[in-house]
Every structure is written in C-alpha cells, then in structure tokens.
Specification:
There is one protein chain. The protein is mainly beta. The protein is 9% helix and 50% strand. It has 2 helices and 11 strands, in the order αβαββββββββββ.
Length: 258
C-alpha cells in the first residue's frame, strides 16, 4: 500500500513537471525523471581524485553547508520513471544506478558538478550522455517502519556488481526527520567530455540523517561502505571518510541541454 501511494505521487509529479514549460527559450528539454536516492558525501584522497579529472577541471569541495569538505558524492539511484518531453519512456525507462559525482569549480553562484563514473543496471543507459557509464547490476533492499504521524526509521542495503568485476555495497540504518522540500539548479559536466554538460532543475524532498553542520542532529544509526572494484581502489583505500548522508524519498528532475 505504501509503495502504491509513492508510485501515485511519482506519476503525479511527472504529470506536473511535463506541464511546466522550459524556463529559458534557448534551452532544450530532453528528459524528465522521478527517483528516490541515497547520497553518501565523502572525503576521499584529493590526489587520487584529481587523477580522474581532465586538464582544466578542478575539484571544489563545498566550504559550508551540510556536505562541507566532501569532495566525492556517491549517489545511489532508484529510478522508476524516465520520460522524454512527449511523455514516452526515455533511454529504456526505469533504472537503478550508482554514480560518482565530483563538485568542481564553475561560475560563481552556480552549483557545478562533474560525473566521473556511472554504473547502470539498464544496458540502454550505457555509455550514457556523459560517455562514462558502465554496465552493472544494482540491487536495493529497503525496510521502513513508521507509526501514525511519526517519521519512519529506515534501513537500506545497496549492492553493485559491475560487469567488469568487484563489488560496492552500502548498508545504512537511520531515523528519519520530516524531509525538507527544496529546489535546485545544477550544471553537470562530463569528466570524459569536459565541454559537454546538462542542466538539471530539481524539485526534491531531502533529509540529512548526518550532516557536517556543527550541532546538527546525527540520526544515522549504522553505516557500512565496502568497495572492492579495482578501478576505484585509489579512491577507496581505507582513508575515505563519511562527511554527510542524505536520503531523497522524492527527487523530480527536468534535464535540459544548453
């Protein structure tokens, strides 16, 4: 029953977003998706991370906010709906994926990110618009327990098995608060093709179970990240540190090309 309510909310969000015109005439709407997500904001070895970046692209970790000092965002994505501007399935439709995203220097005042790797369960999403997606099987297991009007407690396990071998797994337990609704605009580049970028306009519900903000509540009850993918060994050498963790029960995104 709870899943059906969530799916109805998803499709309502899709309908509303499709009814919204592009806000800038020069931009082209190419995709609309509705996800739920978990993001682990990490501090990984800077020298190893910079080797993933092309010449002229510089890592720029946030200097304030809930993800302060995190230089790698590890995204766990569950996408039940992905549509083109006509409302037809985009890129094969649903997907589960794990993405490695880096905050980079960009135009002041704009949220600028670079995708360095995506592992996608949907073969039609490989190599993807950023030309650096690889095939992999992503499994998500979720348990939520809520009573009456109280926020839920939750437990999630994500497991990635790339086609090339190895494993990445995340296990978290958390006590939810009431999520905050926020809107964001992001300019997302490809580390494989630096000149290419897409514009995201996002309407989301977000809950930081752990935050870098001093004095903020820590509602993360358990956290375990294990990475044995050879290509990622330099980033996950045992010195990586969790800065913040957020859940996004609803994430509605419009994607534009400039």
């Amino acid at each position: 029953m709870a899943r059906m309510r969530l799916l109805r909310f998803f499709y309502l969000a899709v309908a509303v977003a499709l009814a919204s015109p592009a806000v800038v005439a020069a931009e082209t709407l190419v995709q609309l998706n509705v996800d739920s997500r978990v993001i682990a904001f990490l501090k990984v070895p800077p020298a190893a991370l910079q080797k993933w970046m092309p010449a002229g692209m510089e890592v720029d970790a946030p200097s304030k906010g809930p993800a302060q000092d995190a230089n790698l965002f590890l995204l766990f994505i569950d996408r039940p709906s992905s549509l083109d501007p006509e409302g037809k399935p985009f890129g094969g439709g649903p997907n589960r994926a794990v993405a490695l995203v880096v905050p980079i220097k960009g135009t002041p005042g704009k949220s600028t990110l670079a995708v360095i790797r995506i592992y996608s369960s949907n073969p039609l999403a490989v190599p993807g618009p950023y030309k650096n997606s690889l095939p992999g099987s992503v499994r998500r297991q979720v348990a939520l327990d809520g009573n009456a009007m109280e926020p839920e407690s939750g437990e999630e396990t994500w497991t990635l098995h790339p086609a090339s071998g190895g494993e990445l797994s995340l296990h978290v337990k958390f006590q939810r608060a009431f999520p905050a609704r926020s809107k964001a605009e992001q300019f997302v580049h490809s580390a494989a093709e630096p000149a290419f970028y897409r514009i995201y306009r996002v309407d989301q519900l977000v809950d930081f179970a752990r935050s870098a903000v001093p004095g903020s509540a820590d509602r993360l009850r358990a956290y375990h990240l294990r990475v044995s993918i050879p290509a990622l060994a330099s980033l996950f050498d045992g010195s990586e540190r969790l800065v913040a963790l957020a859940t996004f029960p609803v994430y509605v995104r419009q994607v534009f090309l400039p």
